[in-house]
Structure formats: C-alpha cells, structure tokens
Amino acid sequence: MDIRQKETLEQMTGGGIRFHYPMHRLTTYQVGGPVEALWEARDLETLKKVIRYLSLEGIPYGVLGRGSNLLVKDNGIDGVMILLKGSLAAIKEGAEESLVWAGGGAPLADLMNWCRQRGMSGLEFLAGIPGTVGGAVAMNAGAFGQEVNERIKALQFVLPGGTPVERNRSELKFSYRRLHMEEGRLVTNVCCFLDRATPEAVSEKMSGFLKTRKQTQPLEYPSAGSVFKNPPGAPASTPGAGRLIEKAGLKGKKIGGAMVSEKHANFIVNNGGATAADILMLMDLVRFEVKRMLGIDLEPEIRVLGK
Q1: Does one domain contain both 174 and 262?
Q2: Which of 32, 47, 92, 281 is the residue whose CA sits 20 to 30 A from 306?
Q3: Mean pLDDT confidence for 127-154
Q4: CB-based contact 137:187 (threshold 8 Å)
Q5: What is the average pLDDT across 267-276?
Q6: Looking at the structure, do residues 197 and 280 belong to the same domain, yes or no?
Q7: CATH number of the domain bearing residue 247
Q8: To 5 degrees, how large is the angle CA 200–CA 205–CA 211?
C-alpha cells in the first residue's frame, strides 16, 4: 500500500486501523511476521465500504479469526487483515426458537456458553476449539465424527464489491474442511439450527468432548491444531493423518523450535522459540517421509499465509 491508500483507510475506518502489526501476537502458534495493516471492523456498513475500496484498489485482504488454524510466514503479510468485532461478533436468537444467529467474529467459546445457558444442543463437538464462528464455517470445522455444515441453515456474506448477500444451506457447497466460496467473500453472519435440551445435558456433552481433547491433544504447547487433513477414506472417529505420521516414526521429530507432538502426531507444536520457517520445514519433512514410506500424500489442514 502507498501513503495515499493508507491515509484513505485511516479516514474510512475512523483511525481504527494499525499498520505493521506483529502477527505473532494474534496466532496460536505465536509466530509470524507483521501484517501491512490490521483493522477491527465493528459494523456492517463500514465493512462494506472498506471491502469495496480494497477491491477497487487491488489491495489484498482477509479475515483473521482467533489465528488458531493459521501459520503466518516470518516475512509477514501484504494487505489488510480484518478482525470482525462489535455487531459482527454478536450472538442472538433467530426468528424460530431453534435457531441462533452468530456473527462471523464471535468466538466459539462465546457460542458454546450461549448454547449451554439456554440448553441448546448440536454444536457441543466444537467445545475447546479456540476459533471464531466464521473461521469454523469457512473450514467446515469438525470433530468426533461431526461437521459444522450439518447445522448450517443460512450464511450471510459480503462480496468483494461490498455487496451483502444471504445464502440458504441448499445453495452452499461444503466438503471435508472446506466451504467452497469465491476469493474475497467474507462470512459475516451464520445461522444454525439446534435441538432443545437442558443446560445440564449440554454442559455434560461439552465436558466429555473437552476431557477427550485434553487427554489426546498437546494443549500445553502453542499449536494450530491438526496440521494435516485425514486422507480420504480414513475413519472419521480416528486421527488418520496422526496414525500415518506415527507409523513413519516421526513422533518427537524436531526442526529448530518446532516438534511433532509426542502426544498426537498430527500436531506440530512450538516447543519454544520456533519460527514459521521451522514449522514449514517440519511440515515438508513429514509430508516427504509419509509419502516415501507409506505412499500417501498428506494435505495441509492449516492455512499458510505470507511472503
């Protein structure tokens, strides 16, 4: 971005934009160089105007959730990363009793609390995932044999030109760890259908999932969750990619400060002082060895951004 573009963005956002912001502060890996600009969008009208301007100027942009499924390269990111806050992170009941609307920037933890307090069931499998609602939908987050798309009734987006649209579930295409949508489209609001239960029953389900996560995942280290997708055909109830990595003898393998977890081989953790380059090199090594030894190509699940 040039000086004119930066000044225009400052005026459009009322000064709510920060330049050269260190991304390691905003990702669960705690690594990554600076983003050219970071903006907290708090209302739909301003978001539409800014997206329209960025699109016309050819400035790259994207939404940053909780940085929990993201690896930012050490040289940082060009363009603007957007945090959805305010009304874009609100949670409210839908027109029907069984529906909930959640802003794309709403933390999953907030949605879990909302469901627990009201005794609304169906999304308990998301408990313990440190992301946002929009991020969970964009990657079709799943666990314990369930996926977010199974509970989606409708989504609201902002298109690259700044136009807001709404799409029903029948108009959306999901696949394993992916919502298929055009480049530059942002998820601003999510409508889910839930089942009536009791706060106690919802809490018990969530506690069970949280207990399993704690027992099987290296939550004590910075990470971005599962690094690789389970290969096609792997049973949904078992960590297929993790078993393959373990079978290749890579548990505990280190490059710099990055390490393949001893507890769950599909987690590459920041063991202390890791750089994004360390993590990327270890990912490449894992893919190479699993392909060499087992003949299977592993596809990354985490997003890698930057230059």
Answers
A1: no
A2: 47
A3: 94
A4: yes
A5: 97
A6: no
A7: 3.90.78.10
A8: 120
Is the pLDDT at 271 greater than 90? The verdict is yes
Are 149 and 264 part of one and the same domain?
Answer: no
Q: Please state, rounded to an integer, the average pLDDT across all residues of the chain.
A: 94
Q: Which residues are catalytic?
A: 177, 226, 301
* Last residue of one domain, picked from the residues 215, 243, 271: 215
* CA 95/CA 239 separation, integer angstroms: 38
Residue 233 confidence class, pLDDT cut points 50, 70, 90 = low
CATH of residue 20: 3.30.43.10
State whether 123 and 209 are in the same domain.
yes
Per residue in 104-134, pLDDT (tens digit) is 999 999 999 999 999 999 999 999 999 999 9
Structural domain boundaries, residue 44: 3-84
Number of domains, the chain: 3
The continuous run of DSSP H or E covering 276 comes out as helix 276-294
Tokens of 40: 């907290």
Looking at the predicted structure, is the pLDDT value of residue 71 above 50? Answer: yes
The secondary structure of 187-232, three-state, reads: EEEEEEECEECCHHHHHHHHHHHHHHHHHHCCCCCCCCCCCECCCC
Taken in order 178, 251, 272, 128, is the CA torsion positive or negative? positive
Of residues 135, 175, 131, 172, the one with CA closest to residue 155: 172
Check residue 182 and give its pLDDT. 86
Q: Got the DSSP string for 103-127?
A: ETT-BHHHHHHHHHHHTEES-GGGT
3-state SS, residue 289: helix
Amino acid in position 124: E
Same domain, 279 and 189: no
Look at the chain and count its residues.
307
